[in-house]
Amino acid sequence: MRLKRICGWLIAGILFIGLLGGAAPVNAAKVPANFAATPLLPKNQLSSKAGYFDLKVTPGATQVLKLAVTNPSNSARTLKVIPVNATTADSGHAVYIPTKRPADASAQTTFTKMTSGPVTVSLAPRQGKTVTFYTRIPASGFTGEVLGGLFVTDPHATLSKQENGDSSDFQLNNRYAEVTAVALQCHPGQTFKTNLKLAAVGVHQPDTQPTAFARIRNLTPALFGDLQIDARVMRASTGQQVASQTLRNGSMAPNSWFDDNISLGNNRLAAGKYLLKLHVTSGKRIWNFSGAFTLTRQQSAQHNSLTHAAHQPNYWWLWLLALLLALLLCFGAYWLGKRRRDDDDDDADSDQDN
Fold first, then answer.
1. Share of the chain above pLDDT 70, in %
2. Quick one: 165 and 276 in the same domain?
3. Which pLDDT belongs to residue 5?
Protein backbone atom coordinates (compact mmCIF):
# COMPACT_ATOMS: atom_id res chain seq x y z
CA MET A 1 0.00 0.00 0.00
CA ARG A 2 2.81 2.40 0.82
CA LEU A 3 4.42 1.74 -2.55
CA LYS A 4 1.16 2.49 -4.36
CA ARG A 5 0.77 5.76 -2.48
CA ILE A 6 4.31 6.82 -3.43
CA CYS A 7 3.67 6.06 -7.11
CA GLY A 8 0.38 7.93 -7.00
CA TRP A 9 1.97 11.04 -5.50
CA LEU A 10 4.81 10.87 -8.04
CA ILE A 11 2.46 10.81 -11.06
CA ALA A 12 0.20 13.49 -9.58
CA GLY A 13 3.18 15.74 -8.94
CA ILE A 14 4.41 15.45 -12.53
CA LEU A 15 0.94 16.23 -13.91
CA PHE A 16 0.50 19.19 -11.53
CA ILE A 17 3.84 20.74 -12.55
CA GLY A 18 2.90 20.32 -16.22
CA LEU A 19 -0.41 22.09 -15.67
CA LEU A 20 1.31 25.00 -13.93
CA GLY A 21 3.52 25.48 -16.98
CA GLY A 22 0.51 26.03 -19.28
CA ALA A 23 -1.89 27.86 -16.99
CA ALA A 24 -2.67 31.58 -17.36
CA PRO A 25 -4.71 33.80 -15.05
CA VAL A 26 -7.97 35.19 -16.40
CA ASN A 27 -9.24 38.56 -15.16
CA ALA A 28 -12.81 39.74 -15.68
CA ALA A 29 -13.95 43.32 -15.09
CA LYS A 30 -17.55 44.38 -14.60
CA VAL A 31 -18.39 47.91 -15.68
CA PRO A 32 -21.13 49.57 -13.57
CA ALA A 33 -23.98 51.55 -15.12
CA ASN A 34 -23.49 54.95 -13.50
CA PHE A 35 -25.68 57.09 -15.75
CA ALA A 36 -27.94 57.01 -18.79
CA ALA A 37 -28.22 59.15 -21.93
CA THR A 38 -31.36 59.34 -24.07
CA PRO A 39 -31.73 61.32 -27.34
CA LEU A 40 -34.74 63.62 -27.58
CA LEU A 41 -35.59 63.09 -31.25
CA PRO A 42 -36.75 66.17 -33.26
CA LYS A 43 -39.44 66.33 -35.93
CA ASN A 44 -36.96 65.94 -38.78
CA GLN A 45 -35.99 62.47 -37.54
CA LEU A 46 -35.96 60.10 -40.55
CA SER A 47 -36.50 56.86 -38.64
CA SER A 48 -38.69 56.84 -35.56
CA LYS A 49 -37.45 53.34 -34.69
CA ALA A 50 -33.80 54.37 -34.52
CA GLY A 51 -32.42 54.95 -31.03
CA TYR A 52 -30.10 57.70 -32.29
CA PHE A 53 -30.28 60.96 -34.23
CA ASP A 54 -31.01 60.11 -37.89
CA LEU A 55 -31.82 63.52 -39.35
CA LYS A 56 -32.54 65.25 -42.62
CA VAL A 57 -30.96 68.68 -42.29
CA THR A 58 -31.35 71.89 -44.31
CA PRO A 59 -28.35 73.77 -45.78
CA GLY A 60 -27.75 77.01 -43.89
CA ALA A 61 -29.97 75.98 -40.96
CA THR A 62 -29.03 75.31 -37.33
CA GLN A 63 -29.94 71.88 -36.06
CA VAL A 64 -30.72 71.61 -32.33
CA LEU A 65 -29.69 68.34 -30.65
CA LYS A 66 -31.02 67.57 -27.17
CA LEU A 67 -29.75 64.74 -24.99
CA ALA A 68 -31.32 63.78 -21.66
CA VAL A 69 -28.77 62.55 -19.10
CA THR A 70 -29.82 61.02 -15.79
CA ASN A 71 -27.98 59.96 -12.64
CA PRO A 72 -29.76 56.93 -11.12
CA SER A 73 -27.20 56.49 -8.33
CA ASN A 74 -27.28 57.75 -4.76
CA SER A 75 -24.15 59.85 -5.28
CA ALA A 76 -23.66 63.18 -7.03
CA ARG A 77 -21.97 62.90 -10.39
CA THR A 78 -20.31 65.26 -12.87
CA LEU A 79 -20.56 64.24 -16.53
CA LYS A 80 -18.98 65.58 -19.68
CA VAL A 81 -20.79 65.38 -23.02
CA ILE A 82 -18.40 65.62 -25.98
CA PRO A 83 -19.32 65.89 -29.68
CA VAL A 84 -17.12 63.41 -31.60
CA ASN A 85 -16.63 62.48 -35.23
CA ALA A 86 -17.17 58.95 -36.48
CA THR A 87 -13.73 57.63 -37.39
CA THR A 88 -12.20 54.29 -38.31
CA ALA A 89 -9.93 52.76 -35.68
CA ASP A 90 -6.82 50.79 -36.56
CA SER A 91 -8.75 47.66 -35.64
CA GLY A 92 -10.66 48.23 -38.90
CA HIS A 93 -13.99 49.25 -37.36
CA ALA A 94 -16.00 52.48 -37.38
CA VAL A 95 -16.06 54.04 -33.89
CA TYR A 96 -17.72 57.01 -32.18
CA ILE A 97 -15.17 57.98 -29.54
CA PRO A 98 -12.90 60.93 -28.70
CA THR A 99 -9.78 60.92 -30.86
CA LYS A 100 -7.22 63.32 -32.29
CA ARG A 101 -7.32 61.47 -35.59
CA PRO A 102 -8.34 63.90 -38.37
CA ALA A 103 -10.93 63.12 -40.99
CA ASP A 104 -9.79 62.17 -44.45
CA ALA A 105 -8.91 65.07 -46.74
CA SER A 106 -11.90 64.14 -48.92
CA ALA A 107 -14.41 65.16 -46.21
CA GLN A 108 -16.47 68.25 -47.08
CA THR A 109 -17.14 68.90 -43.39
CA THR A 110 -17.30 67.03 -40.07
CA PHE A 111 -19.73 66.82 -37.19
CA THR A 112 -17.37 68.55 -34.74
CA LYS A 113 -16.70 71.42 -37.15
CA MET A 114 -20.41 72.15 -37.34
CA THR A 115 -21.34 71.53 -33.69
CA SER A 116 -20.94 73.53 -30.47
CA GLY A 117 -18.32 72.41 -27.96
CA PRO A 118 -18.34 69.98 -24.99
CA VAL A 119 -20.69 70.52 -22.06
CA THR A 120 -20.06 69.64 -18.42
CA VAL A 121 -23.15 68.87 -16.34
CA SER A 122 -23.44 68.26 -12.59
CA LEU A 123 -26.16 65.89 -11.43
CA ALA A 124 -27.44 65.37 -7.90
CA PRO A 125 -28.43 61.84 -6.86
CA ARG A 126 -31.32 60.57 -9.02
CA GLN A 127 -31.41 63.81 -11.00
CA GLY A 128 -31.80 64.29 -14.75
CA LYS A 129 -31.01 67.23 -17.04
CA THR A 130 -31.21 68.06 -20.74
CA VAL A 131 -28.02 69.00 -22.58
CA THR A 132 -28.36 71.02 -25.80
CA PHE A 133 -26.01 71.28 -28.78
CA TYR A 134 -26.23 73.42 -31.91
CA THR A 135 -25.10 72.11 -35.30
CA ARG A 136 -24.76 74.75 -38.03
CA ILE A 137 -25.14 73.23 -41.48
CA PRO A 138 -23.01 74.90 -44.22
CA ALA A 139 -24.95 77.11 -46.62
CA SER A 140 -23.89 74.90 -49.51
CA GLY A 141 -24.87 71.75 -47.62
CA PHE A 142 -22.89 68.54 -48.11
CA THR A 143 -23.04 65.35 -50.13
CA GLY A 144 -23.79 61.99 -48.56
CA GLU A 145 -23.84 61.67 -44.79
CA VAL A 146 -21.91 63.16 -41.91
CA LEU A 147 -21.57 60.84 -38.92
CA GLY A 148 -20.68 61.70 -35.37
CA GLY A 149 -21.88 61.20 -31.85
CA LEU A 150 -22.48 62.68 -28.40
CA PHE A 151 -20.06 60.91 -26.09
CA VAL A 152 -20.96 60.98 -22.39
CA THR A 153 -18.36 60.13 -19.78
CA ASP A 154 -16.92 60.88 -16.36
CA PRO A 155 -14.29 63.65 -16.83
CA HIS A 156 -12.17 62.11 -14.08
CA ALA A 157 -11.79 58.85 -16.01
CA THR A 158 -8.57 57.88 -17.76
CA LEU A 159 -7.87 56.65 -21.25
CA SER A 160 -5.71 53.62 -21.91
CA LYS A 161 -4.23 54.22 -25.37
CA GLN A 162 -3.60 51.35 -27.72
CA GLU A 163 -2.22 50.82 -31.19
CA ASN A 164 1.08 52.67 -31.11
CA GLY A 165 -0.20 55.45 -28.88
CA ASP A 166 -3.15 56.21 -31.16
CA SER A 167 -6.23 57.13 -29.15
CA SER A 168 -8.62 55.99 -31.90
CA ASP A 169 -8.82 52.74 -29.93
CA PHE A 170 -8.84 52.73 -26.14
CA GLN A 171 -10.12 50.86 -23.12
CA LEU A 172 -12.51 52.34 -20.60
CA ASN A 173 -10.94 52.17 -17.15
CA ASN A 174 -13.14 52.13 -14.05
CA ARG A 175 -16.01 53.96 -15.67
CA TYR A 176 -19.08 53.68 -17.83
CA ALA A 177 -19.37 55.60 -21.10
CA GLU A 178 -22.26 56.02 -23.52
CA VAL A 179 -22.38 57.44 -27.00
CA THR A 180 -25.43 58.47 -29.00
CA ALA A 181 -24.76 58.40 -32.73
CA VAL A 182 -25.72 61.36 -34.96
CA ALA A 183 -26.31 60.79 -38.70
CA LEU A 184 -26.93 63.91 -40.80
CA GLN A 185 -28.03 64.02 -44.45
CA CYS A 186 -29.05 66.88 -46.69
CA HIS A 187 -30.37 64.59 -49.41
CA PRO A 188 -31.57 61.26 -47.97
CA GLY A 189 -31.69 58.30 -50.31
CA GLN A 190 -28.43 59.01 -52.11
CA THR A 191 -26.36 55.94 -52.96
CA PHE A 192 -22.61 55.86 -53.51
CA LYS A 193 -20.12 53.46 -54.99
CA THR A 194 -17.54 52.70 -52.31
CA ASN A 195 -14.22 54.28 -53.21
CA LEU A 196 -11.14 52.98 -51.37
CA LYS A 197 -7.55 54.04 -51.93
CA LEU A 198 -4.20 52.82 -50.62
CA ALA A 199 -2.46 55.91 -49.22
CA ALA A 200 0.81 54.50 -47.91
CA VAL A 201 2.74 51.38 -46.95
CA GLY A 202 5.49 51.30 -44.36
CA VAL A 203 6.72 50.08 -40.98
CA HIS A 204 5.56 51.30 -37.60
CA GLN A 205 8.33 51.45 -35.01
CA PRO A 206 6.59 51.10 -31.64
CA ASP A 207 8.27 50.19 -28.36
CA THR A 208 7.69 46.53 -29.15
CA GLN A 209 8.04 44.53 -32.36
CA PRO A 210 8.14 46.43 -35.71
CA THR A 211 4.89 46.10 -37.68
CA ALA A 212 4.10 46.65 -41.35
CA PHE A 213 1.10 48.84 -42.10
CA ALA A 214 -1.12 49.81 -45.01
CA ARG A 215 -3.01 53.10 -44.75
CA ILE A 216 -6.45 52.69 -46.34
CA ARG A 217 -8.69 55.65 -47.19
CA ASN A 218 -12.47 55.67 -47.61
CA LEU A 219 -13.21 58.56 -49.96
CA THR A 220 -16.92 57.77 -49.91
CA PRO A 221 -19.30 60.05 -47.91
CA ALA A 222 -21.04 56.97 -46.51
CA LEU A 223 -20.54 54.31 -43.87
CA PHE A 224 -20.00 50.77 -45.13
CA GLY A 225 -19.40 47.37 -43.55
CA ASP A 226 -18.58 43.76 -44.43
CA LEU A 227 -14.95 44.80 -44.88
CA GLN A 228 -12.60 41.85 -45.43
CA ILE A 229 -8.83 42.23 -45.86
CA ASP A 230 -6.34 39.47 -46.65
CA ALA A 231 -2.80 40.85 -46.27
CA ARG A 232 0.45 39.16 -47.29
CA VAL A 233 4.05 40.26 -46.70
CA MET A 234 6.56 38.96 -49.26
CA ARG A 235 10.27 39.31 -49.94
CA ALA A 236 10.70 41.67 -52.87
CA SER A 237 13.67 39.74 -54.29
CA THR A 238 12.19 36.22 -54.23
CA GLY A 239 8.42 36.65 -53.83
CA GLN A 240 8.53 34.33 -50.81
CA GLN A 241 5.68 34.95 -48.36
CA VAL A 242 6.95 35.67 -44.85
CA ALA A 243 3.74 36.69 -43.06
CA SER A 244 -0.02 36.95 -43.55
CA GLN A 245 -2.99 38.40 -41.68
CA THR A 246 -6.76 38.55 -42.12
CA LEU A 247 -9.38 41.13 -41.10
CA ARG A 248 -13.02 40.06 -41.06
CA ASN A 249 -16.32 41.94 -40.59
CA GLY A 250 -14.71 45.38 -40.56
CA SER A 251 -16.35 48.73 -41.29
CA MET A 252 -15.31 52.26 -42.23
CA ALA A 253 -16.80 55.63 -41.35
CA PRO A 254 -17.47 58.14 -44.14
CA ASN A 255 -14.38 59.97 -45.42
CA SER A 256 -12.03 58.29 -42.95
CA TRP A 257 -8.80 56.31 -42.92
CA PHE A 258 -7.01 53.73 -40.80
CA ASP A 259 -3.74 51.82 -40.65
CA ASP A 260 -4.14 48.09 -41.18
CA ASN A 261 -1.25 46.82 -39.03
CA ILE A 262 0.24 43.49 -40.11
CA SER A 263 2.53 41.42 -37.91
CA LEU A 264 5.80 40.45 -39.59
CA GLY A 265 5.51 36.89 -38.33
CA ASN A 266 7.62 34.70 -36.06
CA ASN A 267 10.55 33.97 -38.36
CA ARG A 268 13.83 35.83 -38.64
CA LEU A 269 13.86 38.51 -41.33
CA ALA A 270 16.78 40.10 -43.13
CA ALA A 271 16.94 43.83 -43.72
CA GLY A 272 15.84 44.89 -47.19
CA LYS A 273 12.81 45.49 -49.40
CA TYR A 274 9.47 43.73 -48.90
CA LEU A 275 6.10 43.82 -50.68
CA LEU A 276 2.75 44.18 -48.92
CA LYS A 277 -0.20 42.86 -50.94
CA LEU A 278 -3.82 43.38 -49.91
CA HIS A 279 -6.96 41.70 -51.22
CA VAL A 280 -9.88 43.83 -50.01
CA THR A 281 -13.59 43.12 -50.41
CA SER A 282 -16.88 44.66 -49.26
CA GLY A 283 -19.92 42.85 -50.59
CA LYS A 284 -19.33 42.41 -54.32
CA ARG A 285 -16.69 45.15 -54.52
CA ILE A 286 -13.05 43.98 -54.80
CA TRP A 287 -9.78 45.94 -54.53
CA ASN A 288 -6.24 44.65 -54.90
CA PHE A 289 -3.54 46.91 -53.48
CA SER A 290 0.22 46.46 -53.25
CA GLY A 291 3.13 48.56 -52.05
CA ALA A 292 6.79 48.20 -51.15
CA PHE A 293 8.50 49.03 -47.87
CA THR A 294 12.02 48.72 -46.48
CA LEU A 295 12.92 46.94 -43.27
CA THR A 296 16.02 48.68 -41.89
CA ARG A 297 18.87 46.86 -40.16
CA GLN A 298 17.77 48.26 -36.82
CA GLN A 299 14.19 47.12 -37.36
CA SER A 300 15.36 43.72 -38.56
CA ALA A 301 17.55 43.30 -35.48
CA GLN A 302 14.71 44.28 -33.16
CA HIS A 303 12.29 41.90 -34.88
CA ASN A 304 14.79 39.03 -34.80
CA SER A 305 15.66 39.56 -31.14
CA LEU A 306 12.00 39.37 -30.14
CA THR A 307 11.43 36.43 -32.47
CA HIS A 308 14.35 34.57 -30.84
CA ALA A 309 12.82 35.15 -27.42
CA ALA A 310 9.49 33.79 -28.65
CA HIS A 311 11.13 30.65 -30.07
CA GLN A 312 12.12 29.13 -26.76
CA PRO A 313 12.55 25.34 -26.94
CA ASN A 314 9.53 23.26 -26.01
CA TYR A 315 10.29 20.57 -23.47
CA TRP A 316 6.90 18.82 -23.48
CA TRP A 317 8.59 15.60 -24.56
CA LEU A 318 10.66 15.63 -21.34
CA TRP A 319 7.44 15.67 -19.31
CA LEU A 320 6.14 12.75 -21.35
CA LEU A 321 9.41 10.84 -20.86
CA ALA A 322 9.32 11.55 -17.12
CA LEU A 323 5.75 10.26 -16.92
CA LEU A 324 6.65 7.09 -18.83
CA LEU A 325 9.65 6.51 -16.58
CA ALA A 326 7.47 7.01 -13.51
CA LEU A 327 4.98 4.47 -14.84
CA LEU A 328 7.78 2.00 -15.61
CA LEU A 329 9.23 2.44 -12.13
CA CYS A 330 5.84 1.86 -10.55
CA PHE A 331 5.22 -1.19 -12.73
CA GLY A 332 8.70 -2.56 -11.95
CA ALA A 333 8.25 -1.97 -8.24
CA TYR A 334 4.83 -3.63 -8.36
CA TRP A 335 6.22 -6.62 -10.29
CA LEU A 336 9.16 -7.06 -7.93
CA GLY A 337 6.88 -6.75 -4.92
CA LYS A 338 4.47 -9.32 -6.33
CA ARG A 339 7.31 -11.68 -7.14
CA ARG A 340 8.70 -11.34 -3.63
CA ARG A 341 5.29 -12.07 -2.13
CA ASP A 342 4.92 -15.13 -4.38
CA ASP A 343 8.37 -16.35 -3.29
CA ASP A 344 7.44 -15.83 0.35
CA ASP A 345 4.21 -17.79 -0.17
CA ASP A 346 6.19 -20.61 -1.80
CA ASP A 347 8.64 -20.72 1.10
CA ALA A 348 5.77 -20.80 3.56
CA ASP A 349 4.13 -23.71 1.73
CA SER A 350 7.45 -25.59 1.72
CA ASP A 351 7.83 -25.15 5.49
CA GLN A 352 4.34 -26.51 6.08
CA ASP A 353 5.02 -29.53 3.91
CA ASN A 354 8.17 -30.26 5.88
1. 73
2. no
3. 46
